[in-house]
Amino acid sequence: MTLDMSSILGNLSLPWGFGASSGVTKSTNLTASASPGLGGGQTLAPLCTLCCCGLLNRTLAVVFMVILAFAIVVGNVVTLTVFMQTRQFRTSQGYLKVSLALADMMVGVLVVPFSVYTEISLMVTSAPPSWYQGGSPPLTGGLGGPWQPCKLIGPVFAGCTFVSISTIFLMTVERSVAVLWPLHKDALVTRHRTLLLILLSWTGSFLLALAPLILSASFTLEYNECSRMCNYAPLWDGVQPPPDGNLLLLFPVFDFTLLGGTLVVNILSFTRIRRYTRKRKLLSEGGGDGVAAGSGGPSHRPSFSDIKAAKTIGILTFAFTASFSPIAVFVLGSVVGHTWCNFSFFAFWMLTANSCCNVIIYSVRDQRFRKGVALLFQRNQTPPPCEKS
């Protein structure tokens, strides 16, 4: 079966870009050619229905975005403060968690507030802003042309998404080393290597987020009325798709490759944990005399804290994959020709809401993190003698 690239580009909409659906993508760039009667302040017919584009719906969406931004910022500020003030978290795993919290907080500080600002502007003004789809068509794509806010917000959201995926992958690899090769953990996982990998993760993620603008002049960024975020949109006349449109396929390939690698590493780690748990159970039932007969003794086995940390990172991976799954479903539906404007909002913002989930997971799974949070809010109180040490 042969896929038509124009239908894919027309329908596809991802958190890293692509216009939202066929009608939107075409209408944005056909304003000047195919629709000469439309004025600069007019837009084509919206794809979403009245229940999703009306005043009440926009008001509810703004309230949801404000609450979400507050939860993301506060949760990740608490996470960063605890990790940076607690000496026990100054490890390779702690540095990776700080990197993940920074990426999540950038979403709450820049991406979500910009959507709130745009939605309020659409409610109080008659003419949409220039970065809104259906507004003034861009003359040139790529990094050239006049600057508008979506050229910042779109790559920031894409880059932070890539940073989150790559950081979760690095956290999984770091824990798998501790579980599979506990004797070599300190030699393989060092502070210098971890900081270098974090730097490479951020640099590579944002270069990948900017790749369509750097490598091609066939794409621009606009605020999409379906996802209500800044998305990539191809510049084309609705007849001939851009020849380098497959550049956008770099995004899902990167995401699914790292998520697949994370899943494989987690399977290896949990297989080892399961074998170790069963062996420990057999030794305990045998009266403990088999400890010395166990291959290598206790030093060759992963510690309880390493096992618990591996399980926590497994939960983080599951939560991110669950929030990313609607995007995958949306992509598959778009490729076969479905236009899901209302579902795109759910898919995009479910992924965005994942930015406030990590602090909840840490609070439930990590006792040291809970103690750090408690001490953070009780800073003015004198800790008991047992906690001073």
UniProtKB/TrEMBL annotation:
The keyword Glycoprotein applies. It is a multi-pass membrane protein. It comes from Albula goreensis. Pfam families: 7tm_1 (PF00001). Residues 75-362 form the G-protein coupled receptors family 1 profile domain. GO terms for cellular component: dendrite; plasma membrane; synapse. CDD domains: 7tm_classA_rhodopsin-like. Its main location: membrane. This is G-protein coupled receptors family 1 profile domain-containing protein. It is found in: Cell membrane. Belongs to the G-protein coupled receptor 1 family. Coiled coil: none annotated. The chain crosses the membrane at residues 60-83, 95-116, 152-173, 194-215, 247-271, 313-337, 343-364. Keywords: Cell membrane, G-protein coupled receptor, Glycoprotein, Membrane, Receptor, Transducer, Transmembrane, Transmembrane helix. InterPro entries: GPCR_Rhodpsn, GPCR_Rhodpsn_7TM. It comes from the Eukaryota. GO terms for molecular function: G protein-coupled adenosine receptor activity.
